[in-house]
Specification:
The structure is a single chain. Helix content is 70%, strand content 3%. The protein has 20 helices and 2 strands. Strands 1-2 form a two-stranded antiparallel sheet. A hairpin with a 4-residue loop joins strand 1 and strand 2. Helix 7 packs antiparallel against helix 9. The N and C termini lie close together (10 Å).
Length: 507
């Protein structure tokens, strides 16, 4: 396949800009075409991907700012393939969902939504640390506007919190990225931020430690993880639901992906040194997120806190520091995105039937009158609680397997999160579907447009549940290569980057 990655990367933004020039009523349809084409490109790359090759495929490598050693380098491998596919699927589905209602200033709305997709794809495709930082920070800019201009009642406060938290994280990441390139270039090597070059250069253990902590703080804020989640409740309350679905389903996964792309291969000593710290942060996120999810009655926050818990599981898998845990983390990131986005769509459908209220105490009693909606929601709920046979089950199994081989006590405590997930997922389903009918509830079935958005996502959940090997096979080689430096440290074989053979690139 000869299609350059830049085409997929810039397609959504190109159609977002085109949407600014068309009549307001047509802006949504133009944006929908752009996301559909980006999804088609993502599917083509998934089909064409050679799972036996652990290195980069479809590489684009051009000098961007030569004096600073920054290149416009893009590539696909087993780490980012599934997340690119997830981005394409969810952005298309949520753009179609957004087209089901009217928006003020629709051209600007769809432009910012398209810009966000391009920024996320850029962060996933980037194979240069400086380019990664640029796209990683850029992907939050449109969400400031989407929240501040089209958000709920407390959108100003929510936007301010989001800006403050993420700005601090961005400054830490920028400092760490510059330090990585400059310190790695001491001596003879030319300044370069390409991951393949950085992987061959040596930093001292003390240098790795503080740089790793800066990156970790930035990633944990974006997830969000406990205790750096302070922006999350207000942000989740304020964002429009189609926007929140892609934010929770995709953006938080880019932060988890950053640990695998940046921290483990480039800072293996620091990753091993701070393993217990990150495992404890992950464990706290699992327990705190689960506890909060079954004590709140706001449906958005039930899903928001459940995402904190699920991202805790993903972080747990990454810092098991072995291939099983990392593969489970990648698969769980993909699965959680597939599950949480349709869950937010169901929240929107239930709120529309409950007089606009998103409080689960105002819902209920429509399960028998809307059996199709109830059935689709039940599949989503079972996937959320990782019931055996569901899509999330295999990911959590791999994560716990990886952690059990490293830190058995952490794994045992984390297993409590699986039980707690059953509590909040079933509570959400039973209260909204089968409790006494709410005072303003209108019991009606899915409409055809609503079904065309929800049903394909649920079918994808079922497909991954039946064939999880789809993701595991494509990530296995790359994950083994990425975790090799840290595994080697555990085995007493290596002590730094100089023993790490970087991934080879294939055209």
């Amino acid at each position: 396949m000869s299609l350059p990655l830049s085409i997929m990367l810039w397609l959504p933004l190109a159609f977002g800009v085109l949407g600014l020039a068309v009549p307001p009523r047509a802006a949504g349809r133009v944006a929908m075409v752009g996301t559909a084409l980006a999804l088609a490109c993502a599917i083509a790359y998934v089909v064409d991907f050679d799972s036996a090759q652990p290195g980069l495929q479809h590489v684009t490598d051009e000098t961007w700012i030569g004096e600073l050693g920054i290149s416009y380098k893009l590539g696909i491998d087993g780490l980012n393939l599934l997340l690119i596919a997830l981005t394409g699927v969810l952005w298309f589905a949520c753009t179609v969902w957004a087209n089901l209602r009217e928006w003020e200033r629709p051209r600007l709305f769809y432009f910012h939504l398209a810009l966000a997709e391009t920024a996320v794809l850029g962060a996933l495709l980037a194979q240069d640390l400086a380019l990664f930082v640029v796209f990683f920070d850029l992907m939050l800019v449109p969400f400031f506007f989407l929240t501040g201009m089209w958000g709920g009642a407390r959108r100003v406060q929510a936007t301010m919190k989001l800006v403050i938290y993420t700005l601090v994280g961005s400054l830490l990441m920028l400092t760490a990225a510059i330090a990585t390139g400059v310190l790695a270039a001491e001596g003879d090597p030319a300044l370069s931020f390409a991951f393949s070059d950085l992987a061959q250069r040596t930093l001292s253990t003390s240098q790795q430690d503080w740089i790793f902590l800066f990156f970790a703080a930035a990633f944990l804020v974006k997830m969000p993880a406990f205790p750096l989640h302070g922006w999350m409740p207000d942000g989740y309350r304020a964002m429009p639901l189609p926007v929140l679905a892609v934010f929770s389903g995709v953006l938080s996964k880019v932060a988890a992906y950053g640990f695998l792309r940046v921290c483990l291969p480039l800072f293996p000593d620091a990753s091993a040194h701070f393993q217990m710290l990150l495992l404890l942060v992950a464990l706290a996120s699992i327990l705190y997120g689960s506890a909060m999810a079954f004590t709140t009655s706001e449906s958005r926050l039930i899903l928001g806190y459940s995402s904190v818990a699920q991202l805790g599981f993903i972080t747990l898998g990454v810092f098991a520091l072995n291939p099983q845990g990392a593969q489970g983390a990648l698969l769980q990131a993909f699965n959680h995105g597939l599950v949480v986005a349709p869950a937010f769509f169901v929240v929107a459908l239930l709120a529309a039937r409950a007089g606009g209220s998103e409080d689960i105490r105002d819902m209920g009693g429509i399960g028998m009158r809307a059996p199709v909606l109830a059935t689709l929601f039940l599949i989503i709920a079972f996937a959320t609680l990782a019931m055996p046979g569901s899509s999330n089950f295999v990911g959590e199994f791999y994560i716990l397997l990886g952690v059990f081989t490293e830190k058995i006590v952490i794994a045992i405590v984390a297993s409590a999160g699986v039980v707690m997930a059953a509590v909040y997922a079933l509570r959400l389903y039973i209260t909204t579907m089968h409790n006494r009918t709410g005072p303003r509830v209108e019991s009606r079935e899915l409409s055809l447009p609503e079904g065309l958005v929800l049903a394909p996502l649920v079918l994808l959940i079922l497909a991954i549940a039946l064939y999880p090997q789809f993701g595991l096979k494509r990530s296995e080689k790359t994950v083994s290569a990425v975790t090799a430096p840290v595994v080697a440290l555990d085995d007493g074989v290596a002590s730094g980057w100089t023993h790490y053979a970087p991934l080879k690139e294939t055209p």
